[in-house]
Specification:
The protein has 87 residues and is of the alpha+beta class. Strand 3 and strand 4 form a beta hairpin. It has a two-stranded parallel sheet with strand order 1-2. Strands 3-4 form a two-stranded antiparallel ribbon. It folds into 2 domains: 36 residues, no CATH class; 31 residues, no CATH class. Helices cover 32% and strands 21% of the residues. The protein is extended, with a radius of gyration of 17 Å. The relative contact order is 0.12. It contains 3 helices and 4 strands. It binds flavin-adenine dinucleotide. Flavin-adenine dinucleotide binds next to helix 1.
Amino acid sequence: MADVDGLVVGAGPTGLTLAGELLRFGLSVRVIDRAVTPPLDQSRALVIHARTLELFDQIGIADKAQALGTHVKVRTAALSTWSVWSC
Ligand SMILES: Cc1cc2nc3c(=O)[nH]c(=O)nc-3n(C[C@H](O)[C@H](O)[C@H](O)COP(=O)(O)OP(=O)(O)OC[C@H]3O[C@@H](n4cnc5c(N)ncnc54)[C@H](O)[C@@H]3O)c2cc1C
């Protein structure tokens, strides 16, 4: 018997964002993941990309996220198969 409204499979950014949105709309949710622990040997959250900010804007948290973060100006130039980054 279901005791929650929704089941989210995968506790990565996509799943956790979806779970947060379901909660925000008053639904109960359970999040499950096959991994016992998150990947602790590497960071996957160094920067927030523009597309993520666009999604943050849609759910109303872009201003707060930017206020809590550090703004880094980056220029990217693509040369053939190489990408050159300068800050
Ligand atoms: C080294 C590295 C650095 C990165 N740095 C950044 C960064 O600085 N900024 C940025 O925006 N992005 C970064 N990324 C990209 C970012 O990690 C991904 O875009 C993001 O994790 C995708 O989120 P997701 O929820 O779609 O998938 P995932 O993060 O892959 O999460 C999917 C989850 O679902 C679980 N899962 C999968 N299949 C099943 C199943 N059948 N049953 C149960 N659980 C399941 C997995 O265990 C996992 O926890 C980086 C990626 C890497 C590899």
